Amino acid sequence: MKDASPAKTYALHLGVIALLFALNFVLPDYHQGLFARIMALAVFAMGYNLLFGYVGLLSLGHAMFFSAGLYGAGLTVYHLGWGVPEAFVAGVACGALFALAIGLLALRTSGVAFMIVTMMFAQVFYLLILYFAAWTGGDQGLVIQQSSRIITIGGASLDLTNPTVRYMSALALFSVVLLITLAVVRSRFGRVLVAIRENEERTKMLGYDTVANKLAAVIASGAICAASGAAYALLFGYIGSSFASVQYSILPLLWVLLGGAATILGPLIGTLFMYYVTDITSGFTSAYLLIVGVALILLVLFFPKGVLGSVRQRWLGWLP
Amino acid sequence: MHFGPHLLLAALEGLVTSAVLALTALGLSLVFGVMRIVNVAHGEFFMLGAVLAWAISTAISGHPAIGFVAALVIAPLLVGLVAFLAEWLVLRRLNYNPEGTIVATIGMLYIIQQLALTFYGPEARPVEPPFNYRILLPWFGYSGYKLSVIAASAVLLVITWLVLTRTKIGLIMRATQYDRETAQAFGIPVERVYAGVFAIGAMLAAIAAVLIVPISQAHYLMGQDPLLLSFIVVIIGGLGSLRGTVVAAILIGLSDGIVSVFFSPTLAKIIATLVVAMVLVFRPQGLFGTTPR
To answer: With a threshold of 0.90, does the pTM exceed it?
Structure first.
């Protein structure tokens, strides 16, 4: 990776944020809602990318972290009547805690075993949600009422069910996470993560504690994914066990592969593209999973670097 | 019913599960052992076998036994063909890279599942058993067909074991498993062995599905549970160990049967999955496997 001036890099990413901000006033209602959803889910993909792209750890269990955030935020609002900010923090904390526990266990394995172990823990979490259906709503899910999705600060109140407020909240979370990942990747810690991906033994020999660094990456990734889940629950008002199923572990992998693993903007591009492809094709056919399947195979066969990965290779060597 | 007969019934049901599970898991284990890849689409080959069995047995009129036997022969062959093509068109081009093949087989999982939903539909459909004989035990009557499933699975397992240990094909497969490059240097067509093993693995799953479909109906989502259970069996039994796979299948099948009769099936699955994940974390070679080289 060639180094670019920080100014150029930050200008590009702030430009993307500005563009998304402007789109709020241009987009028709339907697409405004879709974009809010895409930005919330792109955060999920960015969290996944931090672990998969930069550390090279392929997890098949990130639905667990996403749904830990979803349920951590949703259940505290639903059962305990917490306010939106506290619930969001609770969701992120849940995700980070689960990531710590899973990281401690799963990082003892590597390669294929890591994928299967993460998938199995996520499956246990999914089954637990079904088992405690009395509190979680099981596969029916729970709907969070509009009245409990209003933030009141001083005298002003923000209604998260209002489309513009929802869009801006999703954009705020997206921007914060985008800038955080950008800073992390450019930091010393980020360089160590890439070094672990490229050659773990050599990194260890150079004196870095690879296990501690990987654990930190798992926790950061889990917390970001949980932030996405918590935001999703609070912005769209529904929590259900389908968000914890294997499919939601595979979707972020697909989005990241499509957009380009180990690129900062790749997750957004992947999520945006897949969401619109399924949205447009669902007009003709209900075979949504067929498209996901074909996309996965074609990507891994012919396009393993993804959109931005290829762009970086051909034209923009400085792209972070 | 008293506790004793109830337990016997649970154990018999568990043995039927074990029999089917052993065949399915053996397919997964063969593919992992020889090719060193994890086939996430394995459960979908199982489902495809069941769905094809329904299609074949309904297309053939006459006594249900004729349709069933036809399904038992034709469905696995068709599934084997699909697997062969998948291996040839996709996995080979990925050079069997572990992560690439996992992503690709996840893709296959979705494609097969969606095609089954589109062409077969969301309904669960039964296949008539080839015979309806009830064996009368002192406490309850038991389906003779279920007992024959256990016998058929045992015979197939013995045949597979004989092929692997006593024939030249088995020798070639074991040589490829032991050291791919040396095998190639000795003139073994490794690529053809891989394609064959992948097809045979899928066919074993399909045979298991055809055997179970008169008991539990064919449904497009029925591949999920066998996939997870097969993973569990293969991991507990030790990857690539045939004896371990069979022992683990009996263990898991029996405990699944008994636990789900007396407790909630969801709880049984939670405990089994958690135990297996822990086994994989703390004893990656499995309970019966040897330390990998």
So the answer is: no
Residue B93 domain flag: yes
pLDDT single digits (tens) A11-66: 888 889 999 998 888 888 888 889 999 999 999 999 999 999 999 999 989 999 99
Give the best residue of B103, B236, B259 to mutate against chain A (max A CB count within 10 A): B103
Q: Tell me whether residues A290 and B38 touch, CB distance under 8 A.
A: no
Residue spans of the domains in chain A: they are: 6-244
Give domain status of residue B13, yes or no: yes
Segments of chain B scoring below 70 in pLDDT: 1, 239-240, 286-293
Residues of B in contact with A60 (CB under 8 A): 102
Point out which residues pair with A159 in neighbouring strands: A150
Asked whether the ipTM of the predicted complex exceeds the cut of 0.90, the reply is: no
CB within 8 Å of A73: residues ≥ 6 apart: A87, A88, A90, A91, A229, A230, A231, A233, A234
pLDDT in tens, A236-263: 989 999 999 888 998 899 899 888 888 8
**pLDDT tens digits for range B154-181:** 999 999 989 988 999 888 888 888 888 8
* Nearest residue to B17 (alpha-carbon basis) of B276, B249, B266: B249
Query: Does residue B268 lie within any of the structural domains?
Result: yes
Q: How far is B65 from chain A (nearest CA, A)?
A: 35
Question: In chain B, how many domains are there?
Answer: 1
Domain that holds residue B81: 3-282
With beta carbons under 8 A apart, name residues in chain A contacting B282.
108
> Chain B interface, mutation test: which of A48, A117, A242, most B Cβ atoms within 10 Å?
A117
Decide if B77 is inside a domain: yes
CATH code where residue B183 lies:
1.10.3470
Exposed (0-12), middle (13-18) or buried (19+): which is B264, by Cβ within 10 Å?
Answer: exposed
Three-class secondary structure of residue A155 per DSSP: coil
Distance (Å) from the C-alpha of residue A233 to the closest C-alpha of chain B?
A: 25
